[in-house]
Amino acid sequence: MNTNPTETRATDDSLQRLEQLAGISQRLLEKARALGASQAEVSCSEDRGMDVNVRLGEVETVESTHDRGIAVTVYFGQRKGSASTADLQETSLDATVAQACAIARHTEDDPAAGLADAALMAREFPDLDTWHPWALDARHAVDLALACEAAGREADARIGNSDGASVATAQSLSVYANSHGFIGRERSSHHSIGCALIAGQGDGMQRDGWYSSAIAHADLQDPQAIGRRAAERTVARLQPRSLPTGQVPVLFAAEVARSLVGHLLSAVSGGALYRRASFLLDSVGTRLFPEWFAIDEQPLLRHGLRSTAFDGEGVATRDSALVTGGVLQRYVLGSYSARKLGLHTTANAGGVHNLKVAANAGGLPSLLSGMGSGLLVTELMGQGVNGVTGDYSRGAAGFWVENGQVAYSVDGVTIAGNLKQMFAGIEAVGSDVDPRSHVATGSILIGKMTVAGND
User: Fold this and answer.
1) Pick from 311, 332, 22: nearest CA to 177
2) What's the whole-model pTM score?
3) d(CA 312, CA 334)
4) Which label site among 25, 46, 238, 355 has the fewest CB atoms less than 10 Å from its CB?
5) Of the given ranges (83-87, 143-147, 317-321, 382-386), which has the lowest mean pLDDT?
6) What is the tens place of the pLDDT at every residue in 357-378?
7) Which domains does the chain have, with CATH numbers?
């Protein structure tokens, strides 16, 4: 994406700011030790950013943010206390540690409480290329947003209104340190441009949009291209129909397919498992997907959206399989949930890092051709997923496909099934990966689901 050629990069003082946060974390650990804590951990963060919104050619909002936070957790044996502050004055920092210690002294022992094992701490910190700050001023951000919206509004005469366009840039610094002597520093950036448009008149109006997001602003799509893509998606939704109730193939477009992976992650995450609130209890070693299906975690991927050398507890990350040959290989655990389950941490305190779902098919046209006739889902609505039973029921919109070609837009339908059956019924994963998420998956075709409409 082209940027203003006269734009100059401001002095990057991020490394000095990281050192300041690291110094604060060390002082807080010393204070906790002096107050009798047997273990302690500190998380320090600083976030800066700007968000610009325009609508119908006029500026609506320009917001600049500069936030920071300090969180302290102490352990007295297996009693835990936590407190936080945004004030860096010594008196406030002292009070925060004292409050955490007071809370710990009045809690009960928790056998699973405590830092992750010292032997698991990360010792190598490669450059993962996650730091690309954008020296973007408000005037240029507004120009980009206006250009994006204008391109969308001018792309088709049926575009009659707009929900606006936005440009956002953010950079984050974070330090995690604990009483094992571990200290980890991270820098990350994230930028986005998006547009939402409205087509049609009266009860026939339809809304849709498009956005681009990336670690480096040079990787963003051109603003005008984003606006035109938003217009194409919006007008394609005009004159939607419902469908008769029945069982048909359902193809989840890449931008919504990652939600299926999200349901898997929720079910195999430690909190749901030790609370016995998952439909995938005792499922490690079980075939959940077709034999060709695989998901790998790649935390050390250069330029990855969730790349990191250590998790939220300082545990060293490594590439590992989540699903191989359709079989679930492991759960997703931090040290607390691992202890509750009698297992070992998988270096996922704070979540997963860069999942890659293996493709076995071509792009979207190839998948549509292979499906023949069925429903292409481009939008999901509602939260109708039962994590305990795996029952799935969500509102959906998209397109009916006949003989491998899009026939007409569809709205007002519900798609339903059970996640175990849906996982087992996956017939294809496309190569059309949506790059805007740390879950890298193409479109996903499920052979049969119940579609309920009004016809």
Assistant:
1) 22
2) 0.94
3) 8
4) 238
5) 382-386
6) 999 999 999 999 999 999 999 9
7) 14-234 (3.30.2290.10), 240-455 (no CATH)
